[in-house]
User: Fold Membrane fusion protein (Multidrug efflux system) from Mycoplana dimorpha.
Amino acid sequence: MRLPAVLILAIASGPLAAAGAASLAHAQQAPAQQAPAVVVAPAKIMDLRESADFTGRLVAYQKVDIRARVSGFLESVNFKEGQDVKAGSLLYEVEDGTYRAAVQEIEGSIKAAEAQRDLAIIERDRSKRLLASNTVSQSQLDVAEAQVKKAEADLARLNGSKAQAELNLSYTRITAPFDGIVGLSAVDVGALVGPEAGALTTLTRLDPMYAEFSVATSLLLTYREEVREGKISSGANVRIILPDGTEYPSKGTVNFVSSNVAQGTDTVTVRAEFPNPHGVLLDGTLVRVSLEQTNEQDVLAIPQEAVQRDQQGAFVMVVGADSKVELRRVDIARTTRGHAVIASGLKEGEQVITEGVGKVRPGIVVDAAPAAAAGG
Assistant:
């Protein structure tokens, strides 16, 4: 059914039409009146000490291959692979019958040599008495003296052989030279082992642990010059970041700087020591090493994400007390730990936009929320 023209005209010019027009005008004006929402953070004084990051590798404090020092068949393996052992713990036993027999044989030879020596002494003393009564000649006494010396030399040689035989016997018991963790055993009971058989297992000490990394020679020289001039302290906190991105809780100390420069890379090897009582750090792990100054270094800094760049350089968007946005050119001294250190261009307490900068332009009013509040 078509409405009469008079009714259509009344609706178009009546109160309903006026209300609709007002609503349409408000809808068109609403987006222009709504201030963009942004997140801000203040420029503040922070302790951001100078630091440098390097790629390093963890190296065991002590690590040795356990080898057999005498030949023989293996009688026992006295550890579990991967077990913690103390210094002196028995790891392997080699068949020792041959070595015990050698000791006993030499002990018998020593007793015979001692008897020979005693007899030579008796003959010498008799010759001395007979010489006093002119019964024997001086030459006979000289021969007797020589026989005593020969007997004593034979006895010394046999005692040396006994010491060697006892040492070989002791080598049939292979023990741990220091506290550590034993690796996989390369041999089983019954295997023929000896000095030429290679490593039987590996013993590794993981506490403390070393981190070795290479530092550019130029960086090392600059560091030493700044220490000499008193600009920075000579000490450094050393931290390591593990492969999963977590920071190892204990700090380390630098205990070695190589005196040689690697010719191919022009770097110097530096080593730091870390406590590792729980065995978290493992030998050979690739880590990130961070060197940080020990003395505090208070600087003006802002979150790094607040810094924008164009052809003219770095700038930030500052929100003033009137909520208006201002583009501010800044000089960045350095960036570290997610912050930009401001050399000039900002004052402490000024608010810079960290989120939503793409929605603003200089001069507009924004709805600014602090970073902590926005995150909550």
In short: The radius of gyration is 44 Å. Helices lie at 5-13, 15-33, 97-132, 138-170, 217-228, 371-375. Residues 37-47+299-375 form a domain with the conserved putative lor/sdh protein from methanococcus maripaludis s2 fold fold (CATH 2.40.420.20).
